[in-house]
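User: We ran a pulldown and think these components assemble together. Before we commit to crystallization trials, I'd like a predicted model of the whole complex to look at. Sequences follow.
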Amino acid sequence: MENKREIFHVLTRRFGLLNKNCCSVGGFDISTVQSHILYEIDKQNTPSMQQIAETLAMDITTFSRQIQTLVKMELVKKTPSSQDKRVSLLSLTTQGKFVATSIDHSMNAYLDEVFSHLNEFERETVIRSLQLLNGAMSKSSVCCTPLY
Amino acid sequence: MENKREIFHVLTRRFGLLNKNCCSVGGFDISTVQSHILYEIDKQNTPSMQQIAETLAMDITTFSRQIQTLVKMELVKKTPSSQDKRVSLLSLTTQGKFVATSIDHSMNAYLDEVFSHLNEFERETVIRSLQLLNGAMSKSSVCCTPLY
DNA sequence: AACAATACTTGCATTTTGCAAGTAAATAAA
DNA sequence: TTTATTTACTTGCAAAATGCAAGTATTGTT
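Assistant: Here's a predicted model for the assembly, 296 residues in total across the polymer chains.
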């Protein structure tokens, strides 16, 4: 079957579910968006608000409020940059780091379970293919502009 | 050893963008969720509300309201079942069918563009891998049901 | 006939979202 | 140096999305 849209439709829904189901850690209820924010802060080195918002393609105002929530939950710390006083640098608190790591573990556990339904060869092929796909998407010129 | 979570994190984000950018068709502004609803109604044969809500793993009350919106937009028609008067059968209006088809075309165009960055062999491998992955997810006990 | 189960719908109350509009700081121009 | 512009956010709405509780109507079951 060559209908790509069908494949992506199902995949998208499943990814959504996967991300939804992963994120209850030790009393904290983390939304999908919030888990993505934590992930990116963890990955990047004391990034600014702009950087993360742009990476996640989020509206900066929505992002600002999400960060406020995460700061209230004591998962994220906002430090004013000494270089540029307009900029807020983001980092995870100890708790935030713990939550991010926990989510990472459960996600990888989920994914391992999923991949356990494939044999070793298929597993490697799929992983390599997803990397290829990621690469292709990053090269795409129409990625973030509306198509008609 | 590749980090699956990283791969999925990026893929999820990109898929989200893809779905977000797809959905402005001839004056209609369709949200991602709505496009998924249209897609499923189109695919299934006069399904009930429950069926689609369950397929998309949506809360039935949220779904009910989304359908009300789509009915107001004259994209979806709700017909009471003659078999069971509690049931509403869903179908696309002519306009709805047009919108669904347009979105389908845009999505496929986008995906073709993405895949154009791969060679023929990679393309086939990736498609086949995504199908494998879908299959594995459908077998998974930890997520992704009841999609099929 | 009485009760439970199903298929929705409506009432909140909360959360999420994004466009305007605002503040403060850095940079460019006059 | 002063003024204007840009940048990095924050707040004020208002609209949309979400989900639990509680409702209505219909069907299925003792």
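The longest strand of chain A covers residues 76-80. That may be worth checking against your pulldown data before setting up trials.

User: Thanks, that helps.
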